[in-house]
Amino acid sequence: MDLATLVPSQGWCPPKSRGPHPQAHAASFLPPLPFIPTALTHSSSPPPISQGHTQDTNTYFLCRTLRSLGVQVCRVSVVPDEVATIAAEVTSFSSRFTHVLTAGGIGPTHDDVTFEAVAQAFGDELKPHPELEAAIRGLGGEGWEKLSRVPSSARLHYGTDPRTGRPFRFPLVSVRNVYLFPGIPELLRRVLEGLKGLFQNTAVQFHLRELYVAADEASIAPILAEAQAHFGRRLGLGSYPDWGSNYYQVKLTLDSEEEGPLEECLAYLTARLPQGSLVPYVPNAVEQASEAVYKLTESGRGQTLGATLSPRNAGLLEAPCRSRRR
């Protein structure tokens, strides 16, 4: 296999003024309110990502999805397929954050070492898990027996496929406050979608507004400075120039835990930015098109397309994936 990654592993940390850092405990889930779990993404992938052989999409997906669940990402780390290195990073993250998510390094080959590394991090040992052994046998997963050997203190979490409503046949493994996700992007996405309840922070909802401005960033910098001085304590204001877009020159982001300040700042900027500089723009158009295709497969009109796509996607979750990328 080419990739034995511990790609995104997220831990969570409480924000300032929200109380002391909660200690990580065995099988801990979301910390008691009012803590906000803040995820950190941890990637182990020597050749593929760190050497530029493949593009990391897992970090972006995890950060965005966790944000929508009331979670703020704190740290992202990329580490090689080395048991001692991964174990040291997991130990550090587990003690500093309330949750840690790893991605990758789960498979049948010699360089799939995530389970071993996490066991070492907690002074645990690998043992065959009866439920995992049964799942692998039931799926006819010859050659995948290594997946059944997990840290002895591991817990199993069976998610539900949001598209079919059926439970996944292979679970997500966790050890204490560390959750071990597959590194294959399609698998990781569907596993997280099926287990959002594990990470949902109902005490917090982040609100986001994006503005696309057809004006040079330097020319609007004074306006942004004024807005920051006026609203800075109630929201985050970001400015991101884009030299490659044919539609806008700067993307502005307004981010807050409250809706009111966003609307006030939005009105403030709209009134002060150069007239006609705000442009309508649809971000992630390709991704939105993909989501539309999947929705079509679930409709009566999409039965033919669904029959083409579903076997591949269903197989990815219902059996150990035989792709070389993990």
UniProtKB/TrEMBL annotation:
Single GO BP term: organophosphate biosynthetic process
TM region positions: none
Stored Gene3D superfamilies: MoaB/Mog-like domain
Annotated spans, Disordered: 1-24
Family: In the N-terminal section; belongs to the MoaB/Mog family.
A Pfam family of this chain: MoCF_biosynth
Sequence ranges assigned to domain MoaB/Mog in this UniProt record: 38-202
The protein, known as: FAD synthase isoform 3
Top-level lineage group: Eukaryota
Organism: Sus scrofa (Pig)
InterPro entries: CinA, FLAD1_M, MoaB/Mog-like_dom_sf, MoaB/Mog_dom
